[in-house]
Amino acid sequence: MPLDFKQRFFRVLPAVDKILREKTLLEVGEKVHRGLIVEAVQDVIAEKRLNIRRASSEKELELMDLSSAALAGEALRKIGEKTISNLRPVINATGVVLHTNLGRSPLAGAALDAIKAVAASYSNLELSLESGRRSSRYDHVEELLCRLTGAEAALVVNNNAGAVFLALNTLARGKEVIVSRGELVEIGGSFRLPEVMASSGAAIAEIGTTNRSYLKDYREAITENTALLLKVHTSNYKVMGFTAAVRSGSLVGLGREYGIPVMEDLGSGVLIDLSRYGLPYEPRVQDLVAAGVDLITFSGDKLLGGPQAGIIVGKEVFISRIKKNQLTRPLRVDKLTLAALEATLRLYQDENKALQEIPVLRMLTLPAEALKVRVKILAAELEGKIGSFCLVGTSQEKARVGGGSLPQALLPSCQLTLRCPGISAGKLAERLRQASPPVIVRVKKDRVLIDLRSISEEDDSLLLDTVAGLLQEMDNESNGGVVQK
Ligand SMILES: *Cc1c(COP(=O)(O)O)cnc(C)c1O
User: Fold this and answer.
1) How far is CA 186 from the centre of its chain?
2) β-bridge pairing 262-268 and 226-232
3) Following DSSP, what letter does each residue of 354-418 receive, concatenated?
4) Euclidean distance between CA atoms 281 and 278, whole angstroms
5) Which of 10, 23, 295, 340 stands the most exposed, by the fewest C-beta atoms within 10 Å?
6) Candidates 102, 158, 187: which one to mutate for ligand 1, based on the most atoms within 8 Å of Cβ?
7) What is the CA(192)–ligand 1 centre distance, in A?
8) pTM, two decimal places
9) What is the pLDDT of residues 190-205, one digit of tens each?
10) Which are the contacts of 258, defined by CB distance < 8 A and separation ≥ 6?
11) Tell me, what DSSP letter sits at residue 451?
12) How confident is the model over 367-392, as pLDDT tens digits?
């Protein structure tokens, strides 16, 4: 193949400067940083050079529009891609309601309003409007947390890992903490209880076996060096079969006998008995307070359905010591989180309101019947939009709570299923992930499953438009880019 024909095309490629002078790019230049525009133009030229180098025939190259206006148009599209946020909303079609990689809890409308109001303005974050004196940022939620849980005092930090760390560092640094071996958990790869304990300066006194611990195991491990009895919620797994664990109340009794505080890391704090709505029973924060547990830690963005935060509730004597620890400063919660948390907690003052308005609670407690109705409608509409390009179906696989909450809880659910002949399910999942907005799905055998349990009803039409739009685009691509009617 003579190389000469390619030289001609390399020569007609316009210079960067020429493309930059195209009207469309001069216009965006008023809004977008010049460096970004130059980079986009250079990328386009590099792509064209590659196309020319790889071309196998002159005819193929003649089909390319190498005018500077056309290349400016392509650069403009690239600029568009580069200027949308990296961090952006996605549709969670995985069926895992509390998905840590997808940001756990979407917030309630009231929480969003509170964030917006506080973020756009100055606030009384650390000022008492009553006395005019300096106050604590924690005051805004402490009373509410105490009222909802029955605890004497409360503190909020950046996240639950921070809450556990701070409590251990305050109460058990240089001392021993007794904990059952079956509860030395690792959550999400980044929270390893043994490591958090080690870095807090507390030594672990491990008792029991993986599947069984008895009260006498705790009792026998107590020494003059014991600072705390710790119970940890085994959030993301469940030991099955012959198991035994000591109940919170019994541990409290033992702690009282020896004058040692008892702490429970609940992981995912619930304030509502979700077993009334078809989920497995989980002890509520207020149940542990009532059982006499001295300190309870839990996340703001798991079953509570609020912003990322670590909440500590319990006895005033211990919370006040924790508040004085210098480490509360590096772990401190910011005003936007506090605004969202306060608004979320206020919804809990009326249980029905919480269940309706807190998105994770609404998704988790939605009756399976409602999902069945939605999936039928969506399947019919999708089929109507995409014709025969892909096979649309429905399935009734189980969904999961996720987020290290209710480990074996499987929720009845419904999925839209997609199978596109000639395209692997993995490839289709990848294209959906790159759609706008991205749709995150799961793959089962040769099908893509779009689970409605983790999608708010309000997003159904967005889901439909996004999936249909992508499949139509893929259909066009498979027809050689010719748009078919
Ligand atoms: C999730 C979890 C944590 C970590 O909480 P974050 O809010 O993610 O820091 C700690 N302990 C338990 C038992 C958990 O389930």
Assistant:
1) 18
2) parallel
3) HHHHSHHHHHHHS-HHHHHHHHHHHHHHHHHHHTTSSEEEEE--EEEEETTEEEEEEEE--EEEE
4) 9
5) 23
6) 187
7) 9
8) 0.87
9) 678 888 989 999 999 9
10) 222, 226
11) E
12) 999 999 999 999 999 999 998 889 99
Distance 464 CA to ligand 1 centre (A): 34
Measured CA to CA, the distance from residue 106 to residue 122 in angstroms comes to: 25
Of all protein residues, whose CA lies closest to atom 6 belonging to ligand 1?
160
Nearest protein CA to atom 5 of ligand 1, as residue = 160
Taking residue 369's Cβ as centre, other Cβ atoms within 10 Å add up to: 10
Residue 289 burial (CB count, 10 A): 21
Q: How many CB atoms lie within 10 A of CB 174?
A: 9
What does the pLDDT read at residue 106? 97
Cα of 60 from ligand 1 centre, angstroms: 57
Kindly report, residue by residue over 65-116, the tens digit of the pLDDT.
899 999 999 999 889 888 888 899 999 999 999 998 999 999 999 999 999 9
Q: Which two tokens stand for residue 141?
A: 């939620």
| HSE (side-chain half, CA atoms, 13 Å) at 182 | 19
| The one-letter amino acid at 66 | L
Distance, in Å, from the CA atom of 421 to the CA atom of 387, rounded to the nearest integer, reads 13
The answer to whether 341 and 141 have CB atoms below 8 angstroms apart is yes
Contact 376, 416 (CB under 8 A): no
| Spatial distance between the Cα atoms of 389 and 382, rounded to a whole number of angstroms | 11
Atom of ligand 1 nearest to the CA of 310: 7
CA atoms within 13 A on the CB side of 118: 21
- Answer yes or no: is the C-beta of 404 below 6 A from any ligand 1 atom: yes
Determine the residue of 158, 186, 191 to mutate for testing ligand 1's pocket, defined as the one with the most ligand atoms within 8 A of the Cβ atom.
Answer: 191
Helix (H) / strand (E) containing 97:
strand 96-98
* Euclidean distance between CA atoms 276 and 365, whole angstroms: 9
Please tell me if the CB atom of residue 267 comes closer than 6 angstroms to any atom of ligand 1: yes
d(CA 379, CA 247): 47
Atom of ligand 1 nearest to the CA of 265: 13
Q: Of 255, 197, 243, nearest to 205 (Cα)? A: 197
Does residue 187's CB lie within 6 angstroms of at least one atom of ligand 1?
yes
Q: 291 C-alpha to center of ligand 1: Å?
A: 22
User: For residue 242, what are its two tokens?
Assistant: 């012959």
Q: What is the mean pLDDT of residues 49-66?
A: 89
Q: Are 377 and 458 in contact (CB under 8 A)?
A: no
Give the up-direction half-sphere exposure of residue 49: CA atoms within 13 A in the CB hemisphere: 10
Among 235, 237, 288, residue to substitute to test ligand 1 (most atoms within 8 Å of Cβ): 235
